[in-house]
Amino acid sequence: MRAAASRSWGVLVAMAAATAHAMAGSAPPAGRYEARLCVATAQADPECGAARVELRRAGQAHIRVSDLLYSLTLHSSQADVVLKHGAMQIDGFTATYEWRGMALHFVDAAKGVRYEVQLGPRQRGRP
Question: What is the torsional sign of CA 15, 20, 26, 28?
Answer without folding.
Answer: positive
